[in-house]
Amino acid sequence: xxxxxxxxxxxxxxxxxxxxxxxxxxxxxxxxxxxxxxxxxxxxxxxxxxxxxxxxxxxxxxxxxxxxxxxxxxxxxxxxxxxxxxxxxxxxxxxxxxxxxxxxxxxxxxxxxxxxxxxxxxxxxxxxxxxxxxxxxxxxxxxxxxxxxxxxxxxxxxxxxxxxxxxxxxxxxxxxxxxxxxxxxxxxxxxxxxxxxxxxxxxxxxxxxxxxxxxxxxxxxxx
Length: 223
Description:
It is built from 9 helices and no strands.
């Protein structure tokens, strides 16, 4: 259950605090980041409707992550997996890098190509999904007309359907415009994860905050 899993996370927090007490000051920050991050994301997966922790800073952090998840509509995690896979495969084939900067510089041409291909496919899938929804809504509208006593009647339900269809058609216009662009992210902007004026730097910043990944791709004792 949710609360059973929550208790497990609380036990892990207590354990982590005890571990930090026995560490040198220069080790505490890194260990706390590595330890607390999976706990935070595990808590988010429990998907509580209300905040369990009455801690303003933590609540803001949780809200921020939820907003990012909502904004990217699912493409954030899939794109992260592409980044991690490319880095791991290259490290396994060619050896680890001395720094994160060297790693990103090395694989960026491959990443740029794969991320662009993902964006194109993601947009095409959204268009197909929206077209399917539009077809079902239009069918529902036609079925409603057959039940009307007077041809001129417009039900509240129909207005909702019509407005939803217009919204989906507007989204598809934007998606089709994006497909014609050199980079779909130029049109969709924040709807696409890891989109910025300097994508390479954005990827660099992200990977620097992934301690488990760094342990796999960066040489030990390197910065």
